[in-house]
Specification:
single chain; mainly beta; three-stranded antiparallel β-sheet; 9 strands; globular
């Protein structure tokens, strides 16, 4: 049963659509294919988690857009939030 959502195929994070317990499966659809990974932490509903490893310094992508940069290596299944992402702002 899907419990996370990939918003854009370019994203490296998914959004929990229900609470997910540490060690539990994270299931989401990517281009019609069911993908599964294991949650490395408890994930609150509507929070992001990595759907693949994100190396330190790499952009965090949601909605197909760069929303920040990883300040530490983020493993697939790990919570993605202010503790491991530096905000990205555009200069206009």
């Amino acid at each position: 049963m899907k419990n996370a959502m990939l918003i854009d195929a370019a994203d490296n994070v998914v959004v929990a659509i229900e609470p997910i317990q540490k060690g539990g499966p994270v299931e989401y659809d990517k281009n019609g294919e069911l993908c599964t990974l294991t949650a490395l932490e408890d994930i609150t509903i509507y929070h992001k988690l990595a759907c693949r490893d994100i190396p330190k310094g790499e952009p965090v992508v949601k909605y197909g857009q760069h929303i920040g940069s990883a300040v530490t290596e983020i493993k697939a299944g790990q919570h993605v939030h202010v503790h491991n992402v530096e905000s990205h702002s555009e200069n206009f």
